Prior knowledge:
By secondary structure, the protein is an all-alpha fold. It has one domain (3-67). It contains 4 helices and no strands. The longest helix is centred in the last third of the chain and has 20 residues, at 48-67. The model has no long low-confidence stretch (mean pLDDT 79).
Amino acid sequence: MFGGLFMTIGATFSGAGFKTAPGGAMIAILLSLLPIYTYIMATYDGTLAALLLATVAAFLLWILARRRPLANQR
């Protein structure tokens, strides 16, 4: 949910992020509440492929968990 915020924190260590924009922390936190913003930030950050892979993996795990009930649920 706060992917944009954590990407901004990571960019701060390389000389960008919070160092360059006054009030950038609040903007990153507010925009991080929109799920699509995480994908936009990942595109600029260069980690979009990893985010898409993690999204697909989480979706597949969710589907598999719904198809196969747990042993103690009857």
